[in-house]
Structures are given as C-alpha cells and as structure tokens.
Amino acid sequence: MTEQHTTPPTKARRTPDAPAAPAAPATPDLWASIEDLWTWLDTHRRHGGDTGLVLRMLKLTEEVGEVAQAVIGATGQNPRKGVTHTWEDVQGELCDVVITALVALRTLTPDAAGVFGQHLAGVRERSLGPASSAPADATPPDSGRRP
Fold first, then answer.
1. Rounded alpha-carbon distances, angstroms, from residue 27 to 11, 84, 116
2. C-alpha distances in Å from residue 106, one per residue of 40, 48, 49, 56, 122
3. How far apart are CA 53 and CA 15, in angstroms?
4. Is the pLDDT of residue 5 over 50?
5. Is the CB of residue 147 less than 8 Å from the CB of residue 70?
6. Closest to 93 measured CA to CA, from 60, 116, 120, 142
7. In this predicted model, what pLDDT tens digit does every residue of 81-98 receive, in sequence order?
8. Confidence of residue 10 (pLDDT cuts 50, 70, 90)
9. Per-residue pLDDT at 17
10. Nearest-angstrom CA–CA distance, 137 and 24
11. Would you say 76 and 82 are in contact if contact means Cβ atoms under 8 Å apart?
C-alpha cells in the first residue's frame, strides 16, 4: 500500500472584507449522549434479563466486524470487490465501536463515566508511568500518514 503524506492545513488569515468561515458543528456531550442512547435502547429492547445483556455485549462484536469489512474494502484486499470503502469509512466504523462499547458499559453500570475514567487512569499510568507529563486528553501529533 502506498503511504500518503498530507500537509496539515494552515490557518487562513481573515481580512476585514473576507467572510468568516462557517462554525464547526457543536460536539454533543459524550456521557449525556451515551446515557440518551442507552435509555432509547433500553426502552425499545426486545429481550430483557441475561439474554438482553448478552445481546447488548454481542453488538460490539458485530461493530468490530464492520471495522474489518471497511479495512478490507479500503485496501482493496478482496480482488472480486476491489476498493469499496475509504479510510473515512473506517474512522466511522471505529466510532461505532467506541459508542457501542460505552453503551454496553452503561448497561453494566449507571456510573459508566466513573468506571471508564478510573480504568483509563490505570491504563495510562501502567503504560506511560505515574509521572506522565501529557494531559489525559492530549492528542498525539499527526504523523501525516494513513495506514
């Protein structure tokens, strides 16, 4: 696969006559959205009890399979189908995995945010050490390459 190099976008300077760039859409609050999705799913569930719980967890496997399908499609790995997806499709599927996992976590505990935050802190400390200087929400620099 050919490596693609991209140049980070530069900030355009606005002159007094130039119109303002359109505002970026507001990002919904993560945990409020997870709670809303969980409530909606719980209200419309077909199965309760252990069966409903297991099916909610299995949904995650389905979403991970869609990531695999998108990666295969983005790389053109299936010669019969060729390139059927983009790396942006893969990004969307990965977002679906994260959302599904967080809703599944909320299914197991009403304190999903607390459980996740505590677990993330443990993984962060185990991986980066207790004296890590990067804040928890730091974004790694863009390497300019796609897989």
1. 21, 29, 20
2. 12, 15, 15, 10, 19
3. 56
4. no
5. no
6. 60
7. 999 999 999 999 999 999
8. very low
9. 58
10. 20
11. yes
Task: Give me 34's structure tokens.
Answer: 């997870």
Average pLDDT, integer, range 107-127: 97
One-letter amino acid for residue 135 of the chain: P
Residue at token pair 């390459």: 145
> Three-state SS for 31?
helix
> What pTM value is reported for the model?
0.72
DSSP characters over 100-146 = HHHHHHHHH-TTHHHHHHHHHHHHHHHHH-TT--S-TTPPPPP-SB-
Using one digit for the tens of pLDDT, what is the confidence trace for 28-70? 999 999 999 999 999 999 999 999 999 999 999 999 999 999 9
State how far the Cα of 18 lies from the Cα of 21, in Å rounded to an integer.
9
DSSP 48-113: -HHHHHHHHHHHHHHHHHHHHHHHHHHHT--TTT-----HHHHHHHHHHHHHHHHHHHHHH-TTHH
Spatial distance between the Cα atoms of 123 and 129, rounded to a whole number of angstroms: 9
